Structure formats: structure tokens, C-alpha cells
């Protein structure tokens, strides 16, 4: 067995061991939704449950649209794969089994990253280094020990890409490999809809690099055959859940951003790119590659000047690059959970969210590609750049940061490609004759130690604490790496290249620090919520619970969970009154109950707070006016 394989096997065993010890609490409402779907399938074999929406018409019972109401009843907005497989795992292994889906997907992604690197660059050292960077220098660990299936998406996307590239680059078993690629991609869609973003990448790569039209047809047909089964299954399930045969639907709310109409102008850009690639392909070897690329860019620039809609898309794209790639503190989000912090930081529901460059300052080294000689690996590098460009495009033009979280989780499937590309570029810098391999590796190592230690000291001594380390220090490192890498690519000064290697090491060390702190904070948050599934044991049925994602309440008849969705994050008073009239016990967190009863004098707190997580009962107050109360909309103060 090759040494690189042995290293990854050892790391995989360690990941599995850690997975047996991490917290089983939920991190966010998204994970509660996934758990609800899995529990529903475990108990009923279906996707429909009762959270009281038919009994009490209130948006609070839909959890702000996460639990939409379909033609057959209430269901979840996420794809059904986690419900089906998760239901079986919950039955067999309880919550730990569900969490291990992502642990094993992370292990698989490690080996797929290595295989992709070997396929594209034929270098075992690059393959191993890229795999290690993918795991240790990014925010992968936070999602490896989680319920939401992001790592399943990473595994599916990159395995599908690997199978497709084997068919495209070697031309052997084209139909079979493409069918397997389509099948893996389709299975990924059953867990996360963003997996579909690989499809335009595959289409463009097929247009650009296929050698013979017979192979183009074989790849296309094979992919369609493999993809067809999961897509038909997804469409059939959605027809029962949502009343639509759209396999990409998130239900009536369409909160997943999968409504095609919302991407009209952006779709024009993709169509234009496709047409441009076809045109450059038809020009063939008669025109040099650089000239073809320049013509394509020139035509796109001319279109941007002449077409206002396209110009708007490009401006939005630029804004997205600033916010999602360079500095998340520049994001404009008017929701209540997004608040300014100290030293120019921005907190997202208490978390110091980072742009991609802030999470991974080492990706700045990619700007060295501007001047480095890479004709010998042109095809491999273009494949990775095209994947990165197409995948990030819809998120950047929408400036969609993913809501609650410490990083840009929607870019997770790109981490293998980014790790591979950054490793290759760094290796090319190390190959400079003016720098010995030993000296270069020492610079990277010293930089790694400096980066992690400086980030730690910044956290300890900066007024903004960890948020400042995440959003300020990381930005400085990313910008420094990017500028120095660009200059060394253009000028190739030996002294500058040594400095770049040191800075890349600092960027890697900072990325390790960011990943470790993200994972630690995530585990603290999960540990705080670890007791939630069992806290309803003492509640009498029936009960309406506000703002606590109790798993036991979600699977118990006549126990309902509501998440406030109105102004000021207060419970719907109409729902509270209707529940009291129906003789339900109404409970909510003590702090929420005090604000709610001050805002609506028709209600009062009954008794004293109870439970480890203090909750209070809400009843009608003595001043309740039955005449006004009979007309629920007039209840508001």
C-alpha cells in the first residue's frame, strides 16, 4: 500500500474515533428540520407529519417556511434523501448513526480529493498534500461532525466529477463512467439540491475538451441515463410532498433559491459562456488558445457595455466577490440576527462569519497563476478554474451567504478543487531553482506556526476578540498572500518568492486556526442544545412550545413546536390565544415570555419558570377582554 494511502487511512480512523465522542446537539434550525424529516420517515414511512398547521393556521408553525404545507399535509422543505436514509439510521443507531453519514462522507472526500489530484497532476506528493490541506486547512471538520448533509454533497460532487473526468480525459468506458457519474450526481440531489451546479460544469467541460463527437454523445447519453433514475424518484416524491413534479423544488416557499425565474439574467451569462465555448471549439487549432480566450473575454466585455441587464449582473457579481470572497463584514443583511460588532466586525446570530478568503487565506496564492508558466498543465488548471467559477457564480450574483454559520458553507464542494490547485501552485513556487526544496518547506512550516500563533494572540489581545481575528486579521493575511502571489507570478523575483512561501504558510496556519475555532464553537453550541430532545418528558399532552426545537415534541401527537416569524421575533398572539382556547398548555422561554406579556396585555405568565432551560407557561390575563379576544386580529396592542 502506498504511503499516502496509509496516512489517509490513519486519519480516517481518527475521524471515526472522534465521531464517537462529539456532541449530538443540533447547531441550527436547518438540522432540526433534517431530524424532523428523518424521525417522520422512521415512524410513518412517509414524509408528512402534524405540527398543528391544520388545527391552527399560523406561520409560526411552519418555522418561517422550513416546514411548508403541501397537498397531503405538512412536510420539510429539504430533499428527501436525509429523511429516507436518516430514518433507517435513526432506527438502527439513533442520532450517532445520522451524524456518521457526514463522518464517512468526509473520509470518502479525503480519498476522492487524492484521486482527483493524481488524475489531474499525476503527482503523489501533491495528491497527499492537497488531501491534508483539504482536511486541516479548511472548515471541513465543522461539517464532518454535523447533521446537515453538506459533506455528502462534497463527496457526491467530487466523486461525480472524478468519474466524468476519467471518461473525458481517457476515452475508455465512456458510457459506463458517465452513467456512474450521473448516478452519483443524482444521488447527491436527493440530499442537497446545490449538487445540480456540477451539471453546467460537466456540460461546459464536455464541450471544451472532448476529443471526438462519438465520445461527446457517449458522455452525454451516459450521464443522462445515470441521472434519470434519481431525478425521476425526486420528482415523484416532490409531487406527493409539494404537488409539483419539479425535482428541484423546495416547496411553496422556494426558499432554497431554486426558482428558475429568479435566475433569468444570470442564465443568459451561462448561455453566453456555453456559446462562447462552442465557438472557440469550432475555431480549433487554427487559432491559438490565448487568442481564443482573449476573443471570448472581449466579446463578453462588449456585451456588458451594450446590455444593461448583463452589466447589472456583472456589478452584482463584483459585489458578491467583495462580500463572499474577501470580507464578510461588508455584507448587507437587515435581518435582526445580523449586528455590527467591535472593530468593524459583523456578527451573524452571534457568529463571526468569514468570507472564503477569510476562512482560507492561503487561496490568495492562486493569483500567482497570472504570471506562472502552466502550459504543461493547462487543461487540468482550466478544469478546476471552470468548476470554481461556475459553482460560485449564482451565490456571488445573489450575495447569498448562507444565513447562520461561521463560514461560506455553500462553497464546501469547492474545497477539494481549491486545495488541489493551491497545492500545485505552491509546489511550482517550491520548484524555483533559486530556492532549495528544504528551504521552501521550512518557510511554509515557519509560516504555519506564525499564522496560527499570531491569530491566537490577536484573539487574546484585540478588542474585538475572536471576531476580530476571524474578520480582520484573516483579511490582512489573505490580501497580503494575494498581492504577493500576484507580484511573484508576474516578476518571478527569488526573494519575493521566498516571502510568498512564508506568507502562504501563514495563510495555512491562519486557516487551521479558523477551522479549529469554528469546530470548537460549533461543538459548544451543540453541547448547549444536547439536552433539548428530552426536556419535554415532563410536559402534559397537549402542549404548544415556542422557540425550542424539542425533538420529542415533534414526534408526539398533540405536542407542537412554533418558531416566531413575525416582527421583533415575538410569538403570534393569535396562535397563542387559539391554543389556550383549545386547552393546550402554552410554554416559551422565560425571556421571551416576559417580553411577550409586556407587549400583549391580554396574556400573563402563569406560575414560576421551570426546567433546566427556564420555560414559563402563558395564560390569559385578568384584563383579557372576551369581546376583543373573540376577534383575534384585534388582539394586537
Write the layout of secondary structure elements.
Layout: H1 3-19, H2 29-44, E1 69-70, E2 73-74, H3 81-121, H4 124-136, H5 140-144, H6 150-170, H7 174-189, H8 198-209, H9 213-241, H10 264-283, H11 289-306, H12 308-326, E3 338-340, E4 346-348, H13 356-359, H14 378-398, H15 415-430, H16 437-461, H17 465-491, H18 494-529, E5 543-546, H19 551-554, E6 559-562, H20 573-581, E7 585-589, H21 590-599, E8 603-610, E9 615-620, H22 626-630
Parallel strand pairs: 5-6, 5-7
Antiparallel strand pairs: 1-2, 3-4, 7-9, 8-9
Helix pairs in contact: 1-3, 1-4, 2-3, 3-4, 3-6, 3-15, 4-15, 6-7, 6-8, 7-9, 8-10, 8-14, 10-11, 11-12, 12-14, 16-17, 16-18, 17-18
- Please state the overall shape, judged from the principal axes of the Cα atoms: globular
* Class per helix and strand makeup: mainly alpha
Helix content: 55-70%
Major beta sheet, strand line-up: 6-5-7-9-8
* Beta-strand residue percentage: 5-15%
Major beta-sheet overview: 5 strands, mixed
Strand segment count: 9
Radius of gyration, CA atoms, in whole angstroms: 26 Å
Could you explain how this protein is built, in words?
There is one protein chain. The protein is mostly helical and about 625 residues long. The protein has 22 helices and 9 strands. Helices cover about 60% and strands about 5% of the residues. The strands form 3 sheets. It has a 5-stranded mixed sheet, with helices on one face. Strands 1-2 form a two-stranded antiparallel ribbon. Strands 3-4 form a two-stranded antiparallel ribbon. β5 (about 545), α19 and β6 (about 560) form a beta-alpha-beta unit. The radius of gyration is 26 Å and the shape is globular. Keywords: Cell membrane, Glycosyltransferase, Membrane, Transferase, Transmembrane, Transmembrane helix. Its main location: membrane. GO terms for molecular function: pentosyltransferase activity.
